[in-house]
Write a structure and sequence with these properties.
Blueprint lengths: L1 H18 L5 H14 L7 E8 L2 E8 L2 E8 L5 E8 L11 H20 L3 H7 L1
Antiparallel strand pairs: 1-2, 2-3, 3-4
Length: about 130
């Protein structure tokens, strides 16, 4: 009778272990994205990193000009904590962006073509 009781005890323990199922990184990422969508961040959610710390997964998601870090419990699927930080952009050496320089150049070229077509070039040289 003791042999049967130990077998049933082992079966119960294995069933308890099977009930505790850990989520994989894809499932946890989906949970974190769903949580952020509920907070109002519906557009441009880009998962960047998922790591495991004990029973918790840490999911980093890139938002529009922000980064969210969500800690999800792997067994209960609960959000343990989250943090949303603004991304600091690196400043360039030049005060102008490439887009603004290109746009200004295009505008100047358009003015030169229009002035040339209207024969206003002589008028401009008379002013200078």
């Amino acid at each position: 009778m003791t042999a049967m009781s130990t077998v049933s005890d082992e079966e119960e323990e294995s069933e308890d272990l099977e009930e505790v199922s850990y989520r994989n990184a894809e499932q946890v990422t989906f949970i974190a994205k769903s949580f952020l969508e509920k907070l109002g961040h519906k557009r441009s959610l880009k998962p960047r990193k998922v790591s495991r710390e004990g029973e918790n997964y840490v999911v980093e998601v890139e938002l529009k000009k922000k980064t969210a870090t969500v800690k999800v419990n792997a067994t209960t699927e609960e959000i343990e904590e989250y943090e949303i930080e603004a991304v600091t952009e690196e400043s360039s050496l030049l005060p102008f962006s490439i887009k603004s320089v290109a746009l200004t150049s295009i505008i100047v070229l358009i003015f030169l073509v229009v002035f040339n077509l209207l024969d206003l070039q002589s008028f401009l040289t008379g002013l200078l």
